[in-house]
Amino acid sequence: MRKIFLSFFAIVFFNQVRSQDIAQIIAGSKADANKYFSNYIQPFGEGEIYNLARGWYSTARAHKLLGLDFSINIQAAAIPIEKQNFTFNNSDYTTFKLNGGASSASLPTFMGSTTSQQINVSSNVNGQTVSTSFGAPKGIGDDFKKKISFLPVSVPLPVAQIGIGLFKHTDLKVRYFPKTNFNNVAIGVFGLGVQHEFSNYLPFIKKVPFLHLSALAAYNKISASYNPSISGTSVTASDANINYDISAFTLQGIASVKFAFLEIYTAIGYSNGKSTINLKGNYAVSYNTGFPPPNNVVSTNVVDPISLSYTGGGMSNTWGVRFNLLIFKVYADYTFAKYNGVGVGIALAIR
To answer: What's the predicted TM-score (pTM) here?
Structure first.
Protein backbone atom coordinates (compact mmCIF):
# COMPACT_ATOMS: atom_id res chain seq x y z
CA MET A 1 0.00 0.00 0.00
CA ARG A 2 2.93 2.35 0.57
CA LYS A 3 3.93 2.08 -3.08
CA ILE A 4 0.38 2.92 -4.14
CA PHE A 5 0.26 6.13 -2.13
CA LEU A 6 3.82 7.09 -3.06
CA SER A 7 3.03 6.71 -6.75
CA PHE A 8 -0.05 8.90 -6.36
CA PHE A 9 1.80 11.65 -4.53
CA ALA A 10 4.93 11.62 -6.68
CA ILE A 11 3.23 11.45 -10.08
CA VAL A 12 0.16 13.59 -9.57
CA PHE A 13 1.24 16.21 -7.11
CA PHE A 14 4.44 18.27 -7.10
CA ASN A 15 7.50 16.71 -8.69
CA GLN A 16 10.76 18.64 -8.54
CA VAL A 17 10.40 20.40 -11.89
CA ARG A 18 6.87 21.59 -11.14
CA SER A 19 7.93 22.73 -7.69
CA GLN A 20 10.64 24.93 -9.10
CA ASP A 21 8.24 26.46 -11.62
CA ILE A 22 5.61 27.10 -8.97
CA ALA A 23 8.10 28.50 -6.46
CA GLN A 24 8.68 31.55 -8.65
CA ILE A 25 5.15 32.71 -7.84
CA ILE A 26 6.39 33.54 -4.34
CA ALA A 27 8.31 36.47 -5.83
CA GLY A 28 5.09 38.48 -5.82
CA SER A 29 3.25 39.75 -2.78
CA LYS A 30 1.70 37.12 -0.50
CA ALA A 31 -1.76 38.18 -1.63
CA ASP A 32 -0.85 37.83 -5.32
CA ALA A 33 1.01 34.55 -4.79
CA ASN A 34 -1.96 33.02 -2.97
CA LYS A 35 -4.44 34.26 -5.60
CA TYR A 36 -2.41 32.87 -8.51
CA PHE A 37 -1.65 29.61 -6.74
CA SER A 38 -5.30 29.22 -5.70
CA ASN A 39 -6.42 29.43 -9.33
CA TYR A 40 -3.61 27.18 -10.51
CA ILE A 41 -4.11 24.27 -8.10
CA GLN A 42 -7.92 24.53 -7.74
CA PRO A 43 -8.90 21.48 -9.86
CA PHE A 44 -6.51 19.29 -7.90
CA GLY A 45 -7.68 20.59 -4.53
CA GLU A 46 -11.34 20.15 -5.43
CA GLY A 47 -11.06 16.94 -7.45
CA GLU A 48 -9.50 14.97 -4.63
CA ILE A 49 -12.39 15.83 -2.32
CA TYR A 50 -14.75 14.02 -4.68
CA ASN A 51 -12.33 11.09 -5.01
CA LEU A 52 -12.12 10.68 -1.26
CA ALA A 53 -15.89 10.37 -0.91
CA ARG A 54 -16.01 7.52 -3.45
CA GLY A 55 -14.97 3.87 -3.68
CA TRP A 56 -16.67 2.79 -0.45
CA TYR A 57 -18.93 0.12 -2.01
CA SER A 58 -19.43 -2.16 -5.00
CA THR A 59 -22.60 -3.88 -3.77
CA ALA A 60 -25.59 -3.14 -1.58
CA ARG A 61 -25.28 -6.57 0.08
CA ALA A 62 -24.01 -6.71 3.65
CA HIS A 63 -21.67 -9.41 4.93
CA LYS A 64 -22.82 -12.14 7.22
CA LEU A 65 -21.48 -12.00 10.79
CA LEU A 66 -17.66 -11.66 10.62
CA GLY A 67 -17.69 -11.81 6.85
CA LEU A 68 -14.64 -9.99 5.50
CA ASP A 69 -13.40 -8.19 2.42
CA PHE A 70 -10.24 -6.36 1.41
CA SER A 71 -10.38 -4.05 -1.59
CA ILE A 72 -8.08 -1.76 -3.54
CA ASN A 73 -9.51 0.69 -6.02
CA ILE A 74 -8.47 3.74 -7.97
CA GLN A 75 -10.75 6.75 -8.16
CA ALA A 76 -10.18 9.31 -10.92
CA ALA A 77 -12.08 12.62 -10.81
CA ALA A 78 -12.39 14.01 -14.34
CA ILE A 79 -11.38 17.66 -14.58
CA PRO A 80 -14.03 19.78 -16.34
CA ILE A 81 -12.71 21.63 -19.39
CA GLU A 82 -13.40 24.99 -17.77
CA LYS A 83 -11.18 23.99 -14.81
CA GLN A 84 -8.15 23.27 -16.99
CA ASN A 85 -7.49 26.99 -17.51
CA PHE A 86 -8.15 30.20 -15.63
CA THR A 87 -8.29 33.82 -16.69
CA PHE A 88 -5.41 35.98 -15.49
CA ASN A 89 -6.36 39.68 -15.32
CA ASN A 90 -3.69 42.28 -14.60
CA SER A 91 -6.27 44.26 -12.64
CA ASP A 92 -6.62 41.41 -10.11
CA TYR A 93 -2.97 41.66 -9.03
CA THR A 94 -0.76 44.41 -7.61
CA THR A 95 2.71 42.92 -8.22
CA PHE A 96 2.06 40.67 -11.26
CA LYS A 97 1.57 41.81 -14.85
CA LEU A 98 1.51 39.88 -18.10
CA ASN A 99 4.61 40.33 -20.21
CA GLY A 100 3.86 41.59 -23.70
CA GLY A 101 1.31 44.26 -22.91
CA ALA A 102 -1.89 42.18 -22.74
CA SER A 103 -4.29 42.98 -19.92
CA SER A 104 -5.63 39.43 -19.59
CA ALA A 105 -4.79 35.91 -20.74
CA SER A 106 -6.00 32.31 -20.35
CA LEU A 107 -3.36 30.39 -18.39
CA PRO A 108 -3.21 26.67 -17.54
CA THR A 109 -4.11 25.28 -14.17
CA PHE A 110 -2.14 22.35 -12.74
CA MET A 111 -4.34 20.00 -14.80
CA GLY A 112 -4.11 22.16 -17.93
CA SER A 113 -1.68 22.21 -20.83
CA THR A 114 1.44 24.27 -21.56
CA THR A 115 2.15 27.97 -21.98
CA SER A 116 5.00 30.29 -22.91
CA GLN A 117 3.54 33.29 -21.08
CA GLN A 118 5.94 35.29 -18.92
CA ILE A 119 4.82 37.15 -15.80
CA ASN A 120 6.58 40.37 -14.79
CA VAL A 121 6.95 41.07 -11.08
CA SER A 122 7.32 44.52 -9.59
CA SER A 123 7.76 44.75 -5.84
CA ASN A 124 9.21 46.87 -3.08
CA VAL A 125 12.09 45.85 -0.81
CA ASN A 126 13.16 48.24 1.95
CA GLY A 127 11.54 51.14 0.13
CA GLN A 128 13.27 50.29 -3.15
CA THR A 129 11.36 49.35 -6.31
CA VAL A 130 12.64 46.00 -7.61
CA SER A 131 11.64 43.55 -10.33
CA THR A 132 11.95 40.03 -11.65
CA SER A 133 9.97 37.72 -13.94
CA PHE A 134 8.98 34.07 -14.23
CA GLY A 135 7.39 31.73 -16.70
CA ALA A 136 3.76 30.96 -15.92
CA PRO A 137 3.66 27.40 -14.52
CA LYS A 138 2.65 24.72 -17.00
CA GLY A 139 0.05 22.04 -16.39
CA ILE A 140 0.35 18.27 -16.61
CA GLY A 141 -2.65 17.88 -18.92
CA ASP A 142 -0.62 17.22 -22.09
CA ASP A 143 1.50 14.59 -20.33
CA PHE A 144 -1.64 12.97 -18.95
CA LYS A 145 -3.21 12.73 -22.43
CA LYS A 146 -0.08 11.09 -23.82
CA LYS A 147 0.46 8.56 -21.04
CA ILE A 148 -3.12 7.79 -19.99
CA SER A 149 -5.01 8.49 -23.20
CA PHE A 150 -7.90 6.13 -22.35
CA LEU A 151 -9.06 8.44 -19.54
CA PRO A 152 -10.13 12.07 -19.57
CA VAL A 153 -7.73 14.43 -17.81
CA SER A 154 -8.22 13.40 -14.18
CA VAL A 155 -6.74 13.48 -10.73
CA PRO A 156 -6.43 9.94 -9.33
CA LEU A 157 -6.54 8.66 -5.78
CA PRO A 158 -5.76 5.09 -4.67
CA VAL A 159 -8.03 3.69 -1.97
CA ALA A 160 -7.49 0.59 0.18
CA GLN A 161 -10.02 -0.55 2.76
CA ILE A 162 -11.21 -3.47 4.85
CA GLY A 163 -14.86 -4.33 5.49
CA ILE A 164 -16.20 -6.67 8.17
CA GLY A 165 -19.72 -7.90 8.84
CA LEU A 166 -21.09 -7.01 12.26
CA PHE A 167 -24.61 -7.45 13.59
CA LYS A 168 -28.00 -7.02 11.93
CA HIS A 169 -26.86 -6.73 8.30
CA THR A 170 -24.30 -4.05 9.11
CA ASP A 171 -20.76 -3.70 7.71
CA LEU A 172 -17.97 -1.65 9.24
CA LYS A 173 -15.51 -0.28 6.66
CA VAL A 174 -12.05 0.94 7.66
CA ARG A 175 -9.39 2.88 5.81
CA TYR A 176 -6.24 3.28 7.88
CA PHE A 177 -2.57 3.93 7.26
CA PRO A 178 -0.47 5.46 10.07
CA LYS A 179 1.41 8.66 9.25
CA THR A 180 4.63 7.27 7.87
CA ASN A 181 7.73 8.96 6.50
CA PHE A 182 9.65 7.51 3.58
CA ASN A 183 12.15 9.49 1.57
CA ASN A 184 10.74 13.04 1.42
CA VAL A 185 7.06 12.09 1.62
CA ALA A 186 4.84 11.42 4.65
CA ILE A 187 1.29 10.09 4.32
CA GLY A 188 -1.43 9.11 6.79
CA VAL A 189 -4.96 7.86 6.14
CA PHE A 190 -7.98 7.42 8.41
CA GLY A 191 -11.52 6.54 7.37
CA LEU A 192 -14.60 4.88 8.83
CA GLY A 193 -17.81 3.88 7.11
CA VAL A 194 -20.96 2.03 8.13
CA GLN A 195 -23.16 0.30 5.56
CA HIS A 196 -26.51 -1.17 6.61
CA GLU A 197 -28.67 -3.36 4.38
CA PHE A 198 -32.38 -2.87 4.94
CA SER A 199 -33.72 -5.20 2.22
CA ASN A 200 -35.04 -7.65 4.81
CA TYR A 201 -37.24 -4.99 6.38
CA LEU A 202 -39.29 -4.54 3.21
CA PRO A 203 -41.75 -7.36 2.50
CA PHE A 204 -41.95 -6.68 -1.23
CA ILE A 205 -38.12 -6.82 -1.53
CA LYS A 206 -38.05 -10.27 0.09
CA LYS A 207 -39.97 -11.53 -2.92
CA VAL A 208 -37.13 -10.35 -5.19
CA PRO A 209 -34.11 -12.12 -3.68
CA PHE A 210 -31.63 -10.78 -6.21
CA LEU A 211 -32.41 -7.13 -5.32
CA HIS A 212 -30.62 -5.53 -2.35
CA LEU A 213 -30.92 -2.07 -0.79
CA SER A 214 -28.64 -0.41 1.74
CA ALA A 215 -27.49 2.92 3.15
CA LEU A 216 -23.93 4.11 3.75
CA ALA A 217 -22.41 6.86 5.90
CA ALA A 218 -18.64 7.36 5.73
CA TYR A 219 -15.87 9.81 6.64
CA ASN A 220 -12.32 9.81 5.32
CA LYS A 221 -9.23 11.96 5.83
CA ILE A 222 -5.78 11.96 4.24
CA SER A 223 -2.83 13.99 5.55
CA ALA A 224 0.31 14.24 3.46
CA SER A 225 3.47 16.31 3.33
CA TYR A 226 6.21 16.62 0.76
CA ASN A 227 9.67 18.20 0.95
CA PRO A 228 10.50 19.42 -2.56
CA SER A 229 13.92 20.58 -3.66
CA ILE A 230 13.53 24.23 -4.69
CA SER A 231 16.41 26.15 -6.21
CA GLY A 232 15.18 28.45 -8.95
CA THR A 233 16.54 31.54 -10.66
CA SER A 234 14.92 33.97 -8.24
CA VAL A 235 13.63 31.80 -5.39
CA THR A 236 15.56 29.30 -3.26
CA ALA A 237 14.61 27.36 -0.16
CA SER A 238 16.38 24.93 2.15
CA ASP A 239 13.37 23.79 4.20
CA ALA A 240 10.41 23.89 1.81
CA ASN A 241 7.45 21.79 2.91
CA ILE A 242 4.06 21.27 1.25
CA ASN A 243 1.30 20.10 3.61
CA TYR A 244 -1.88 18.68 2.13
CA ASP A 245 -5.02 17.57 3.97
CA ILE A 246 -8.26 16.24 2.46
CA SER A 247 -11.39 15.24 4.33
CA ALA A 248 -14.77 14.16 2.99
CA PHE A 249 -18.09 12.88 4.34
CA THR A 250 -20.68 11.03 2.27
CA LEU A 251 -24.20 9.62 2.63
CA GLN A 252 -25.34 7.14 -0.03
CA GLY A 253 -28.41 5.06 -0.78
CA ILE A 254 -27.28 1.93 -2.66
CA ALA A 255 -29.13 -0.67 -4.72
CA SER A 256 -27.66 -3.75 -6.38
CA VAL A 257 -28.96 -6.60 -8.48
CA LYS A 258 -27.07 -9.90 -8.45
CA PHE A 259 -27.19 -12.42 -11.29
CA ALA A 260 -24.87 -15.37 -10.63
CA PHE A 261 -21.40 -14.00 -11.47
CA LEU A 262 -22.61 -10.55 -12.48
CA GLU A 263 -23.78 -7.75 -10.20
CA ILE A 264 -25.03 -4.30 -11.16
CA TYR A 265 -25.08 -1.53 -8.57
CA THR A 266 -26.17 2.07 -8.39
CA ALA A 267 -26.26 4.76 -5.72
CA ILE A 268 -27.51 8.24 -5.17
CA GLY A 269 -26.30 10.45 -2.38
CA TYR A 270 -24.60 13.53 -1.07
CA SER A 271 -21.03 14.33 -0.10
CA ASN A 272 -19.06 17.32 1.10
CA GLY A 273 -15.46 17.90 2.04
CA LYS A 274 -12.52 20.22 2.38
CA SER A 275 -8.91 20.28 1.29
CA THR A 276 -6.10 22.54 2.47
CA ILE A 277 -2.74 23.12 0.85
CA ASN A 278 0.02 24.99 2.66
CA LEU A 279 3.49 25.84 1.43
CA LYS A 280 5.67 26.39 4.48
CA GLY A 281 9.31 27.21 5.06
CA ASN A 282 11.76 30.06 4.56
CA TYR A 283 12.29 31.30 1.01
CA ALA A 284 14.96 33.69 -0.24
CA VAL A 285 13.66 35.80 -3.14
CA SER A 286 16.10 37.73 -5.36
CA TYR A 287 15.13 40.83 -7.37
CA ASN A 288 16.79 43.07 -9.90
CA THR A 289 17.31 46.64 -8.74
CA GLY A 290 18.24 48.22 -12.07
CA PHE A 291 21.55 49.44 -10.64
CA PRO A 292 24.95 48.30 -11.94
CA PRO A 293 26.85 45.50 -10.13
CA PRO A 294 27.45 44.81 -7.32
CA ASN A 295 24.19 46.52 -6.37
CA ASN A 296 22.15 44.98 -9.17
CA VAL A 297 20.49 42.31 -6.97
CA VAL A 298 18.69 42.52 -3.63
CA SER A 299 17.15 39.66 -1.65
CA THR A 300 14.41 39.32 0.92
CA ASN A 301 13.08 36.46 3.01
CA VAL A 302 9.50 35.11 2.84
CA VAL A 303 8.10 32.76 5.50
CA ASP A 304 5.18 30.32 4.98
CA PRO A 305 3.99 32.03 1.79
CA ILE A 306 0.99 29.92 0.70
CA SER A 307 -2.15 28.90 2.59
CA LEU A 308 -5.15 27.68 0.58
CA SER A 309 -8.48 26.00 1.29
CA TYR A 310 -11.05 24.42 -1.02
CA THR A 311 -14.49 22.94 -0.46
CA GLY A 312 -16.54 20.62 -2.63
CA GLY A 313 -19.63 18.49 -2.57
CA GLY A 314 -23.17 18.03 -3.75
CA MET A 315 -25.38 15.30 -5.12
CA SER A 316 -23.97 12.34 -7.02
CA ASN A 317 -25.22 9.30 -8.91
CA THR A 318 -23.05 6.20 -9.40
CA TRP A 319 -23.55 3.26 -11.78
CA GLY A 320 -21.30 0.22 -11.70
CA VAL A 321 -20.83 -3.43 -12.55
CA ARG A 322 -19.06 -6.13 -10.54
CA PHE A 323 -17.94 -9.62 -11.52
CA ASN A 324 -18.01 -12.15 -8.68
CA LEU A 325 -15.48 -14.93 -9.29
CA LEU A 326 -15.76 -16.94 -6.07
CA ILE A 327 -13.96 -14.83 -3.47
CA PHE A 328 -12.30 -12.63 -6.11
CA LYS A 329 -14.22 -9.53 -7.25
CA VAL A 330 -13.52 -7.09 -10.07
CA TYR A 331 -15.60 -3.95 -10.43
CA ALA A 332 -15.84 -0.62 -12.23
CA ASP A 333 -18.19 2.34 -11.93
CA TYR A 334 -18.89 5.85 -13.15
CA THR A 335 -20.14 8.71 -10.98
CA PHE A 336 -22.06 11.73 -12.21
CA ALA A 337 -21.32 14.82 -10.10
CA LYS A 338 -19.74 18.26 -10.32
CA TYR A 339 -16.51 16.35 -10.95
CA ASN A 340 -17.54 13.17 -12.73
CA GLY A 341 -15.44 10.15 -11.84
CA VAL A 342 -14.29 6.72 -12.91
CA GLY A 343 -13.56 3.99 -10.37
CA VAL A 344 -12.00 0.54 -10.88
CA GLY A 345 -11.08 -1.97 -8.22
CA ILE A 346 -10.48 -5.52 -7.06
CA ALA A 347 -11.52 -7.22 -3.86
CA LEU A 348 -11.18 -10.44 -1.94
CA ALA A 349 -14.40 -11.16 -0.07
CA ILE A 350 -15.70 -13.90 2.21
CA ARG A 351 -19.37 -13.34 2.92
So the answer is: 0.89
